[in-house]
Amino acid sequence: MKKNSDETKRRITVQWTRPAKEKLATLPPKVRRAILDKTIALADCDPRESHKPLTGPLRGYYSIKVSRYRAIYTVREEKLANGDTLLLVRVVVVAVGMRKAGDRHDVYALAERLIHFAGLEIEKPKRQ
């Protein structure tokens, strides 16, 4: 079967920053499971169209909503040339927490601080 030259292949991986993983572990079990399920589902769709795009200082990031909790993520694309175009999409979850408008512990305020001041290192997957 001949492949369409306009066809783009996509591989999506979900990565978590260390602060997001640590915060996720402290959430109520039902909320934690729902956030994990929604982040896993990002691999089966276009993660740029699945959830709410953020504005202002968090422009380019997206928000997964579970009750009053949010997981903030970004999508990083890398195009590799090897015949067809392979679009590698890394979904990087940068922050997880409760929405508390106006509070310094608000998940959006936390995400903004992590992005701008902490340098946001992505935790590498562990090899087995």
Folded structure, characterized:
- The protein is α+β, with helices and mostly antiparallel strands and 128 residues long.
- It has one domain (8-117): YaeB-like fold.
- It is 29% helix and 36% strand.
- It contains 4 helices and 5 strands.
- The protein has a 5-stranded mixed sheet.
- It starts with 7 loop residues before the first strand and ends in an 11-residue tail after the last helix.
Number of strands: 5
- Strand pairing plus helix content: what structural class? alpha+beta
Report strand %.
35-45%
| Apparent shape | globular
Overall residue-averaged pLDDT value: 76
Q: At the first level of CATH, what is the class? A: Alpha Beta
Relative helix content: 25-40%
Count structural domains. Answer: 1
What's the CATH topology name?
Answer: YaeB-like fold
Succession of helices and strands: EHHHEEEEH
Could you give a short description of this structure?
The protein is built from four helices and five strands.
Features:
128 residues, 4 helices, alpha+beta, YaeB-like fold, disordered C terminus
Fold blueprint:
Elements: E1 8-16, H1 18-26, H2 29-41, H3 47-50, E2 52-53, E3 61-66, E4 69-82, E5 84-98, H4 107-117
Parallel strand pairs: 1-5
Antiparallel strand pairs: 2-3, 3-4, 4-5
